Automatic annotation (TrEMBL):
Protein name, as recorded: Transglutaminase family protein
Organism: Parasulfuritortus cantonensis
Residues annotated as domain Transglutaminase-like: 237-301
Coiled coil spans: none
Bias (Polar residues): 35-46
Chain spans, region Disordered: 1-51
Domain of life: Bacteria
Length: 346
């Protein structure tokens, strides 16, 4: 079996499953992201219009009415080093910002050393735009440089016509079949089911459940910075009462799925604080809402995702949203260094 690289999964962010020695996976939502509190309104009662009635849910909102889009400029450099020459296997690179209704990509550059023998832009199995690269010869260093400029325009995360999500019929049958990969059929751990029952007790329907869960996890789980490692299992995060953003994303998705609500893991970048010099990637869950499609929620900050996040990939499993994924051949351990710079303007 080809060796695998260590995971750059970490501090405040996303990470995938553990990486066996030598397999290279810029895991989960990739490199660690420093968890910086976003500015916004204090906790307040907010009313969400839906299906002809109003639902009161307590949550943190960070929605400011602005006439202009937010401008992101991001530089992300990842370097793997080897003590002896190795042969790089094919790699998946998921670093191009996702172009959806809320994000406009202005420019993206992807530089790779050593120069690949070939590269191709493809859609992976989850519909993410990825770059597939392959190599010839040996190397002692592998570097990926991603630079992009993007505008985010989703000022209001509730800019859609919500459809009903009554318990017992969350999705129309045809839609439920299409969403099966993100709902799953595995039995949820006891702790996940207990938390789901607590949240559901105060939720009139699936939509309110999602908002209440976002607020609950923000209050319940203390945020931590973890340099590396897999995302913790949902029950471990609940037991510890703290976790990195990748842990919160996995826990959120597990609770939603236990109630039949489609959820997936997203990786990308967040605005963060301008006075923070060390930056990383970030992770958050997305939920499929009838009438709204896939919508992001960030329990790390207690927010509905709007224009302060830029997604690069999403998948049912954190490992399948890894920004860099691949392997190498050779009897050599690998070390990992990443540098992320994020500049944001209103």
């Amino acid at each position: 079996m080809s060796p695998r690289h260590p995971s750059e999964a970490g501090k405040g962010t996303a990470g995938g499953r553990p990486i066996s020695a030598g397999r290279q996976k810029f895991a989960g939502a990739g490199p660690p992201v420093t968890l910086s509190p976003q500015t916004g309104n204090p906790t307040k009662q907010s009313e969400i219009a839906g299906r002809g009635r109003r639902i009161d849910v307590t949550m943190l909102l960070s929605v400011r009415r602005r006439s202009a889009a937010m401008y992101f400029q991001v530089s992300h450099v990842t370097t793997y080093r080897y003590s002896r020459p190795v042969r790089l296997g094919p790699h998946w690179l998921r670093l191009r910002p996702r172009c959806d209704g809320g994000t406009e990509l202005l420019r993206h550059e992807l530089d790779i050393e050593p120069m690949p023998a070939g590269r191709s832009d493809v859609l992976d199995a989850d519909g993410n735009l990825a770059t597939r690269v392959w190599f010839l010869g040996e190397t002692e260093k592998f570097t990926v440089r991603s630079r992009f400029e993007a505008r985010t325009r989703l000022i209001d995360p509730y800019d859609y016509l919500a459809e009903a999500m009554p318990w017992g019929a969350l999705y129309a049958p045809a839609l439920a079949r299409r969403l099966a990969p993100w709902i799953g059929a595995a039995a949820a751990p006891r702790g996940v089911l207990e938390l789901a029952a607590q949240v559901r007790a105060g939720a009139a329907d699936g939509l309110e459940f999602v908002h209440r869960l976002n607020a609950d996890l923000h209050r319940r789980i203390d945020r931590e910075i973890r340099d590396s490692g897999r995302a913790h299992r949902p029950e471990e995060t609940l037991r510890r009462g703290r976790g990195a953003c990748r842990d919160l994303a996995v826990l959120f998705a597990a609770v939603c799925r236990s109630q039949g609500i489609a959820s997936r893991f997203a990786s990308g970048y967040q605005q963060g604080r301008a006075d923070t010099s060390t930056r990383y990637m970030h992770a958050w869950p997305e939920v499929y809402l009838p009438g709204g499609g896939w919508r992001g929620f960030d329990p790390t900050h207690g927010l509905a995702v709007a224009d302060r996040h830029v997604a690069v990939a999403a998948a049912a499993d954190p490992e399948d949203a890894a920004p860099i994924e691949g392997s190498y051949q050779g009897d050599s351990p690998s070390s990992l260094r990443a540098e992320v710079r994020i500049h944001v303007e209103d």
